[in-house]
Design brief:
With about 55 residues, the chain is an all-alpha fold. It has one domain (about 1-55). It has one helix and no strands. The protein has one helix at about 10-40. About 0% of the residues are buried. The mean pLDDT is about 80.
């Protein structure tokens, strides 16, 4: 178990900052993936038929 004295040290502060940064990165990445998925559902890709013209 951790003691509260550990979090009062510089190493403890660094570990808390690291945990906060990782949590923020996961939260932002998840949010970006959800927004990307919503955009694809809102504007589905429609295949476009390209006509070819043959010159004789």
């Amino acid at each position: 178990m951790y003691s509260f004295d550990f979090f009062r040290t510089k190493l403890g502060h660094a570990s808390l900052a690291s945990i906060a940064a990782m949590t923020a990165m996961v939260a932002l990445t998840t949010q970006m993936n959800l927004v990307s998925a919503d955009a694809q559902m809102a504007q589905p890709q429609v295949p476009v038929a390209i006509a070819t013209v043959e010159i004789a």
